[in-house]
Amino acid sequence: MPLDSSLHQRRRALTAGELDAIPWIHLLAPQERERAVADLKIAEASPGEYVCRMGRPATYWFGVVDGLLKMSSDNEHGQTMTFTGVPPGGWFGEGTALKREAYRYNIQPLRNSHVAGLHVDTFHWLLDHSIGFNRFIMNQLNERLGQFIAAREIDRMTNPDIRVARSLATLFNPVLYPGVGEVLRITQQELAYLVGLSRQRVNEALTTLAEQGSIRVEYGGLRVLDLPALRSHVFSKETSRKPA
DNA sequence: TCATTAAATTGTT
DNA sequence: AACAATTTAATGA
Questions:
Q1: Structural fold of domain A158-240
Q2: Which residue from A14, A26, A89, A144 has the least number of CB within 10 angstroms?
Q3: What is the distance in angstroms measured between the alpha-carbon CA of A220 and the sugar C1' of C13?
């Protein structure tokens, strides 16, 4: 059962720390915040479950408190295409919440994750009453537009190293995912699922990126050292091939 | 707190 | 896909 259907039963209140990590909560006036906090729910979701499914009516606007989600879509042939990952601090679904439509994507956890939900009615109430909230949403929509344009470029990249680099750069986006910070908690296997490459190839790409100084590979995560380089660096074809 | 063991993740072929 | 090496997490004295 998707999380958006079962959030009612599985919900619990957010801790003070979890509330503090929500990027838009600080932009609200006291009475607005009071209303938002009263409605916010949090639930745990595991791999294989759905946070929300394509076609289901949108009931919540979601945010990742902890963990890692993937956003995907099924085409008419039953194949699944992954668009992007959603790391901590990311909020999504505002487009469909705005129009009160059905979800256009599937959202599934790549590992055990904590997902917060704000009911669409409260979402709309905030839109009607809070300037700060409107500014956040506008900023978010604008930033995501840039992300999707970048995603189209990534799709046309044949070089796996560049695909990994660009995909990582989007996950490190400080505006969309302020919860990530310097280190992104992600395993190489999880990253492989996201970019659609084998774990071996991802490992090779990460090693190359680390050699170039744009990231550092750590156990269970990655540290970004040079985000602009990740976004734009072009690799020469023969950087790390061993000579014959 | 420390040592031991299991589990997870990474590096390599 | 398989394997070894490394790191973390869990357990109990």
A1: Arc Repressor Mutant, subunit A (1.10.10)
A2: A26
A3: 30
d(CA A46, CA A68): 10
DSSP letters spanning A66-100: ES-EEEEEE-TTS-EEEEEEE-TT-EE-HHHHHHT
Tokens representing A68 are 């890692």
Q: Is the dihedral of CA A23, A97, A37, A50 positive or negative?
A: negative
CA of A156 to C1' of B1 (A): 54
Chain segment A138-159, per-residue pLDDT in tens = 999 999 999 989 888 888 888 9
Distance CA A69, CA A124 (A): 25
Cα A202 from Cα A180, distance rounded (Å): 20
Name the pLDDT band for A225 (thresholds 50, 70, 90). very high
Q: Determine which of A22-26, A106-110, A236-240 has the lowest per-residue pLDDT on average.
A: A236-240
Best CATH choice for the domain A5-148 from the list 2.60.120.10, 3.60.15.10, 2.60.40.60, 3.10.20.310: 2.60.120.10
Q: Which nucleotides of B are covered by protein (CB under 7 A)?
A: 8-13
